[in-house]
Amino acid sequence: MMTKPIWNLESLFAGGSSSPDFAAFVEEAEAGCAALLKELQTGGDSVPDERLLAGWTAKLQETLARLREADSFVACLTSQNLSDKRAVGWTEKIQTLAARYKQASDLFDAKLSLVPDSNWEAWMAQSELAAVLFPLSEKRDFAKEKLPPALEAVASELAVDGYHGWGEHYNTVVGRIAIAWEEDGNTVHLSAGQAANKLDDPSQAVRDAMAAKWEAAWAEQADLGADALNRIAGFRLKLYGLRGWSDPLKEPLAINRMSRQTLDAMWEAVEGSVEPLKRYLALKARMLGKDKLSWHDVDAPVASTQSKIPYNEAASLITDAFAQFSPRLAELARTAFADDWIEAEDRPGKRPGGFCTSFPIGRQSRIFMTYSGTPGNVSTLAHELGHAYHARLVQELPPLAQEYAMNVAETASTFAEAIVSDALLSRAESDAEKLALLDERLQRAVAFCMNIRARFLFETRFYDRRASGMLEAAELGELMTEAQREAFGDALGGWHPHFWASKLHFYLTDVPFYNFPYTFGYLFSTGLAAVAAKEGEAFAERYDALLRDTAVMTVEELAFRHLGVRLDEPEFWNDAVAKAVSDVDAFAALCKP
């Protein structure tokens, strides 16, 4: 498969951040949102009739689709070039539009809450509303737990330059990172994205050198990062307090449509992964000639040399692996590569990390990453294509029925990773190749059961402490190290105290606690993979049906309807964890004495 690692944004809005088409599109979205907001601000507390509610529902969904389209385009612009100041300006404009939409949405929700139960049931019985019955009912119920709409509107307005502004500050900070590095006798300055790829280099010397530079670079920016994190958390806690919410997990759990019982059952099961994964980390340390791995060794390849996988070869590998599970999934991948949906070029000036963002009106997606040819890059590419497939399956639904949460979004992506991993392992021809593939699978288990757990422990403790006042950068480093030690069972010989500063996820304001949904998605997809292995080709249809339902029911309902399992009880999660760590024995058997 021949494809180039540069995305095409021109087919969406020609002209990049100076696009007149995009400017016109945003202007129309702003006008539509303003008109809807004005309508919703009239009528006071009178109970709206069915005609008004139906009209507002249609307009709200149209505004939501336009907002998602615009937000995705700006995310692409700012990620591909951190120096694009015009794109940064668009970010503020889209955040303002998002605040206006939230005001309209809050008013709409309040109007819904005025409808008596008997009227509501009659209205919801109309067949044309069946596809959005769940999100509308969800909005109606949650409105009763928030501030009055006028106060929620003030909070949204102030959040643009406050709460969200502090979140965007991460892009300013990461744009300051330029790490001096010697290559072929010349000194180059690597962006954060390029430098991060060196942290899992096959060479121990390269990893050690970059880890020291990486930690030092983020230490220099630590005070700026600490300011941002403290302000973000402070805003949330004050707003939660005004709403009468005492638990900072109330909002992220509601966003992810899951119960505290399910979260607790999952983390309890994850603790059972620590000892098997410690065994894996000790075996890997021995293979690398160390007593204990350091933080930056966890994702290092076990082979002394590692051949690079060209981008075109990765595209073929992924598409072929997807085809073994579902022709529809393979077709999505072919479209993404052929139509230039993917920005993967290894060049300076890009944001670190990877993401997939969807365009609900254009019915396309775009994938962002920095591809340098490592097996981990191939996994990231498969992961993001899983997101794109999920987006495609729901793009035929009304906009409100497309708003699936992060935890189930991560299910589709990690399931796609597993498909690629299984296909590669099944055709591995040597013990060395099998060992390398098992290592990658266990790296993912470590990431989701140890690394993500460390992030969750850090963030919950940070919020506990933040309620009493701001924390200094040094205190955040201590909390981070403590959380890493606990989550990894003290299995490593070196830690990453400034991980809190370097990780974008801590600064995101759209979704608080951007951590536990990853573990949910990984373990839920592990359970799905077990079912797929038993059922074969027949499961692909059921998988698609499950993904289509991800925005119209709780995760507990989703799992019970499509898999017949209880997520708020430990059995499912214990089985998933056991499967996740089952590769440790196979890895140990292949390790050289």
TrEMBL record:
Oligopeptidase F N-terminal domain ranges (all copies): 115-177
Q: How is the cofactor bound?
A: Binds 1 zinc ion.
Which residues constitute the signal peptide according to the record? none
Molecular function, one GO term: metalloendopeptidase activity
Q: Tell me the Gene3D superfamilies matching this sequence.
A: Oligoendopeptidase f, C-terminal domain, Oligopeptidase f, N-terminal domain
Domain Peptidase M3A/M3B catalytic stretches? 201-535
Q: Which cofactor does this sequence's record say it needs?
A: Zn(2+)
Listed A to Z, the keywords are: Hydrolase, Metal-binding, Metalloprotease, Protease, Zinc
Q: Which top-level group of life is the source organism from?
A: Bacteria
Query: What family classification does the UniProt entry report for this protein?
Result: Belongs to the peptidase M3 family.
Q: What is this protein called?
A: PepF/M3 family oligoendopeptidase
